[in-house]
């Protein structure tokens, strides 16, 4: 019997690595991708579960990078997609280089949508498949000093809700949105946010726990999962709190140097 096949993006570290590990444990052959050579070492770890693993280093902020990923599937049916690749960016928007904030938008939005459109078309056509999209509770909060990232996650969260409705007649296809809060990954280092209150916090979620929450919701076909009870509370509060207050609260967490002010 041929194993089912999963594509998992951003799988070299963090939530994506943990999702790939869980998928391998559950007998899925894998196509894993990240924009760094570390993805090849990660693939070796996944292989210990006795599944076939293909690793691809590609920049998913570009359409060409997504095409490279899909070409590596070699026409194989994709049973499960974890669209997890994402990029953050700290500091004030006016201080950011255009190339930097555009890469956040192109990774989190453009590349993600292009991949989803390609994979979901085939899933809907055969009425079978599972998709997990990594959004964030950041999408509920105006992200002062992280404005482009939070805005991109607001887009992703909203888009997932919309596309889920568009394909609702395809009962065999499910789209689940995983919405964590701050997670203990390389995200804050890469976003130059280690000197922020949120970046230096010791209370960030464990990526293994977040991935397990996402996987369980994915397998159940649930629409959403906010990982962690504290994040569930924060998400609920965000829906009833004025935007100006949320933006000020985020400023205190994400402004460069805020770690030194505590």
From TrEMBL:
<dbReference type="Pfam" id="PF00106">
    <property type="entry name" value="adh_short"/>
</dbReference>
<dbReference type="InterPro" id="IPR020904">
    <property type="entry name" value="Sc_DH/Rdtase_CS"/>
</dbReference>
<dbReference type="InterPro" id="IPR002347">
    <property type="entry name" value="SDR_fam"/>
</dbReference>
<keyword id="KW-0560">Oxidoreductase</keyword>
<comment type="similarity">
    <text>Belongs to the short-chain dehydrogenases/reductases (SDR) family.</text>
</comment>
<dbReference type="InterPro" id="IPR036291">
    <property type="entry name" value="NAD(P)-bd_dom_sf"/>
</dbReference>
<protein>
    <submittedName>
        <fullName>Short-subunit dehydrogenase</fullName>
    </submittedName>
</protein>
